[in-house]
């Protein structure tokens, strides 16, 4: 039995993430999906709460043939203890998947095997771009699983993002 | 669709908890199991990490016919914001289940419907008692799901509990 | 112009506190009332939120002839920086009033003049006793200003205290 | 009886803020002024401590015919629990006043009525501009209540701001 | 080159600690002395600040023939990340010395070699006993290195301990 | 006996810092070197852990004729309590050395004597420049004490910095 670990902020979970999970499913029997910056929400970079992201991911992975655990992970703001923190919040895993150089470095210094997650179409699927499209009311629905469209709709997510987006321009009075 | 929320520390998850979930399954379509004090571990009262508890609960609920989400929830040490914190970490829910008077009070002040969770055999299944049996090497295996026995064994949990138990008696040098 | 500083948890603000303020009013022109452990609430020892305590104190001091500032002060859990923290949250003051030996010691080490607050009837007015009476439904109203009775009533404070009181006896399931 | 809530950082409290309070006074019987980012001080964006801001605001509002409570509110760095945090620190309120889109969104999601605070002359009274004038030794005194000029003078505020302003340019050695 | 690590709260550093260091000096070339609970001070259990303890230890070890590093380590309140935290604050070490079962367990789970520190006369040298003697004005000076007597005297440590000791008996008014 | 205090992040400790210490050695009998932002590591601005920096500094100062204490100081994120925090972590000192205007201001407001640290060649020795050279594989070794070159090599510091440097360019997927 092999268990993998995939960390991300998933703001929101999109088709690129889904492809990654499907490719990882070929390697492992079980996968822990760690939701990073779980305490952050209602910002441009992190519009959705951890609970909303748990919903998006759990629903989007229903049809993937893989046992998955979806675990919110709050920031500790200490890189040097981050791997220990992740491990304490997650079922035990043997392989971490990440393309993020800092994450790779931290796992390597802790002696954890890291695999760069399989390539995916960065240009189309970047989280930043998707969030920009959501605010601009451009097409974003085609870039995320249907489950994510549903969750965003249920929580009035576009309205929230539009409001947050106005904040910085507005100064501090 | 109705979603419920059940909070506990689950140190460890035991047959009393399992009965509760089975009774709640008659009320709701989906259930979020919130693991409280998720950051605590390696103490007498909280021997297991959140990740270990995620494993115990997920494995123990495999055969229960209910969609479940298992979500670690770190303490914020602020009762007045606790409900908001829980809600931000959890998929949205309509009904909270708890027998803990403080938890009931906090949910009620926040306007959340609370149901006392169905009765279960307190005398036998108290977490405190089970932990004492684990340290004393009395029978505890019959009081928890098999999945919990397996997890405790894999992580050398009894050895950990035995070591922790010696700490307080040992003073501070 | 002299400004004094009086710290307490005020759980709740009672007639002993009121007498202290009235005596201090003879010494100073203005008084800052610091509400300690401002982040704590919904516990036996700290049932009321900082906001509820701000109300109690502000209303109770309306007829005292003294300019007062009521300032919630959250715990930093660090005795060594406590005086600096208090000073950063409070209008500047020359004299601190306290009977608490730790508080006196911390102010003295920081070079702040401390006066033991004028004597008051400890036996009758101890916060602990008043909280016990509130839970037991014994007479407590005569020991606090009317404004405090009103605030406790508006927030259903007795019900809250009764619920909290049941918690410890109830174990951890 | 209606109580309103106005949040701001008030770095410093200026004539625009004063006009807002005067307009809100037409709506409500009492007003809580919440001092945001209360733990921040000695930075370009937040030069003054919470205690210094309590002084500025309390003195500036002496002649306004309105019962006011001035309450420092430390950041929790968690948008999802911010409204609960504010409520725990403040006397209960029915209406929140704000022009900040994030604040408006957070209150709305929590079911609190929000009114955009009455318009005021943004161009002249922006906090950022006033702070820049204070550092540059341009006229700023005409843009704030007299009480604020006094407080800034008593605490040698301009000297502090001038020192802080030099910091970023100075690197990290 | 071998480097060891010795953790303790050192409230205060006493002859038992000194003997331990002398025995460890036979094993290793360098020793890191980690001062635990570095943020705590002015309590019965932790009367001295980290800085005061740095002084005590550094002065007491001057004549020990061993390269030592004295490093304050603040609590993170998370057992599961404690070893990572310690490692990030300390020069790299190969062997940890401790008699504390929790500390031993945490290091073992992290794969660090632990040696029980050489036996010493617990009955005489317990920190708790020494602190009690200090408060009671019994002989304590003979149980600690001279450097510790000097530091306690310079900081008026006995007066501080006497004040702190009165606090709990004094209630909360 | 006079003791000085020098604060810095020392990312890494370089020849400019060494010159400062040598100049300060003419003024004082003992020096505390405070390692700021001790909890930060694995970032562009703060690549090294506190423990790694303790090693760098301790080894680099071996031949300086001055009693030194090297003390990691974690950030509290509160300028108003920073001086108290520093004092609680450090042996007592009479004079603080700094060129940082914020640090100077904070010490002055707390009544601590501050001396601008003796001039050194800013253009050559800036920490930022040295870190850039380390990433770019330009000569940096000549700008730091030999002990620092050794520590960076032992911990594979250049590889870490190179990985961290790639992170920001890589987006958030």
TrEMBL record, chains A, B, C, D, E, F:
<keyword id="KW-0067">ATP-binding</keyword>
<dbReference type="GO" id="GO:0005737">
    <property type="term" value="C:cytoplasm"/>
</dbReference>
<keyword id="KW-0520">NAD</keyword>
<dbReference type="InterPro" id="IPR004821">
    <property type="entry name" value="Cyt_trans-like"/>
</dbReference>
<dbReference type="GO" id="GO:0009435">
    <property type="term" value="P:NAD+ biosynthetic process"/>
</dbReference>
<keyword id="KW-0963">Cytoplasm</keyword>
<dbReference type="GO" id="GO:0005524">
    <property type="term" value="F:ATP binding"/>
</dbReference>
<dbReference type="GO" id="GO:0000309">
    <property type="term" value="F:nicotinamide-nucleotide adenylyltransferase activity"/>
</dbReference>
<keyword id="KW-0808">Transferase</keyword>
<keyword id="KW-0548">Nucleotidyltransferase</keyword>
<feature type="domain" description="Cytidyltransferase-like">
    <location>
        <begin position="6"/>
        <end position="133"/>
    </location>
</feature>
<dbReference type="Pfam" id="PF01467">
    <property type="entry name" value="CTP_transf_like"/>
</dbReference>
<comment type="similarity">
    <text>Belongs to the archaeal NMN adenylyltransferase family.</text>
</comment>
<keyword id="KW-0547">Nucleotide-binding</keyword>
<dbReference type="InterPro" id="IPR006418">
    <property type="entry name" value="NMN_Atrans_arc"/>
</dbReference>
<protein>
    <recommendedName>
        <fullName>Nicotinamide-nucleotide adenylyltransferase</fullName>
        <ecNumber>2.7.7.1</ecNumber>
    </recommendedName>
</protein>
<keyword id="KW-0662">Pyridine nucleotide biosynthesis</keyword>
<comment type="pathway">
    <text>Cofactor biosynthesis; NAD(+) biosynthesis; NAD(+) from nicotinamide D-ribonucleotide: step 1/1.</text>
</comment>
<dbReference type="InterPro" id="IPR014729">
    <property type="entry name" value="Rossmann-like_a/b/a_fold"/>
</dbReference>
């Amino acid at each position: 039995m092999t268990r993998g670990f995939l960390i991300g902020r998933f703001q929101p979970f999109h088709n690129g993430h889904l492809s990654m999970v499907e490719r990882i499913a070929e390697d492992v029997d079980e996968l822990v999906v760690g939701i990073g910056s779980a305490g952050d929400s209602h910002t441009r970079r992190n519009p959705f709460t951890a609970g909303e992201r748990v919903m998006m991911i759990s629903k989007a992975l229903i049809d993937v043939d893989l046992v998955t655990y979806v675990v919110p992970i709050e920031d500790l703001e200490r890189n040097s203890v981050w791997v220990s923190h992740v491990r304490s919040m997650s079922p035990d895993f043997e392989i971490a998947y990440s393309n993020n150089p800092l994450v790779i470095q931290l796992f390597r210094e802790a002696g954890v095997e890291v695999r760069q997650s399989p390539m995916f179409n960065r240009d189309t699927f970047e989280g930043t771009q998707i969030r920009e499209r959501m605010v601009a009311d451009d097409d974003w629905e085609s870039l995320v699983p249907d489950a994510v469209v549903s969750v965003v709709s249920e929580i009035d997510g576009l309205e929230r993002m539009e409001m947050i987006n106005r904040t910085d321009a507005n100064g501090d009075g």
